[in-house]
Automatic annotation (TrEMBL), chains A, B:
SUPFAM superfamilies: Winged helix' DNA-binding domain. It is found in: Cytoplasm. GO terms for cellular component: cytoplasm. Keywords: Cytoplasm, DNA-binding, Iron, Metal-binding, Repressor, Transcription, Transcription regulation, Zinc. Belongs to the Fur family. Zn(2+) binds at C98, C101, C138, C141. Its cofactor is Zn(2+). This is Transcriptional repressor. One of its GO terms (molecular function) is zinc ion binding.
DNA sequence: CGTCAAGACTGGAATGATTCCAGAGAACGA
DNA sequence: TCGTTCTCTGGAATCATTCCAGTCTTGACG
């Protein structure tokens, strides 16, 4: 069930523009997350191996970090769950997490732009981001 | 530097009212978190041992879970950091986390009551809580 | 005030996600 | 094409947390 690696000019360009080297693992990671938003590192590893064959876990973690640092990916980490990655970046949208199955869905920013909220008392902190996580049950688990 | 265990009628009552047995570890955990809000399990273990002598890590985790389940404690877990516990419960306040040192401070609910925000599109989820985490730099680390 | 069953605690091993490390391999500017 | 720099490999290590089986406590009841 190995897919043929497809040349993705758009994604190659994305990497180059970010000043990153173009490698098979990075392209495969981008593609995997394009197909399944909010995947865990583990899921990405499986998808990348499905496409490229043998790839070390570390290579995938390295790519996830490089891409996240370059703002090509966003990392989110719901309490009690492994980190998840997504390609929707630059808009500080938020997330709903299912308490039962851990499913994650996107939610547009509730109020204005990022940081879309300001703390009532910032205790002297310099705030640069407001992260909102909604918790509940997804349609499936509610049944 | 072992402190003498002090009888804390208020905290004994708290446990009893919650239907929990009163044990030394639980009282010590409550006291530790009364003195240092937003402590990690590890910090609580040290504080409890400082008060009671030998106590297993597991006993502290068990207590933290029991107290959290009974709503005597609240657990929060900033991405990339171990979980932290606090005694301020029942008001769904929020938190500011320092990106540099991990320090946490409380922030009152920005808008109305808990859940203080409603998602613009809930994707069919039943939302029961909105958790807001502000990220930035604390006064100390900004310097 | 003693009994005893449910619940809590001990200590050691296991788990899961992630990171560290040293060496081999690949990307790309010159 | 070459060499430098960055990336990938594979295996071990780390950290927070949980699992497990056996022992000890708490507190309801007699």
């Amino acid at each position: 069930m190995t897919r043929t690696p497809i040349d993705e000019p758009a994604e190659r360009q994305l990497l180059r523009d970010a000043g990153l080297r173009v490698t098979g693992v990075r392209l495969a990671v981008l593609r995997a997350l394009g197909e399944h938003q909010h995947s865990t590192a583990d899921t990405v590893v499986r998808a990348v191996r499905d496409e490229l064959g043998t790839v070390s876990v570390q290579a995938v973690y390295d790519s996830l970090h490089a891409l996240t640092d370059a703002d090509l990916l966003r990392r989110m980490e719901p309490a009690g769950h492994p980190a998840r990655y997504e390609r929707r970046v630059g808009d500080n949208h938020h997330h709903i997490v299912c308490r039962a199955c851990g499913a994650v869905a996107d939610v547009d920013c509730t109020v204005g732009h990022a940081p879309c909220l300001l703390p009532s008392d910032d205790h002297g902190f310099t705030v640069d981001l407001a992260e909102v996580t909604f918790w509940g049950l997804c349609p499936r688990c509610r049944g």
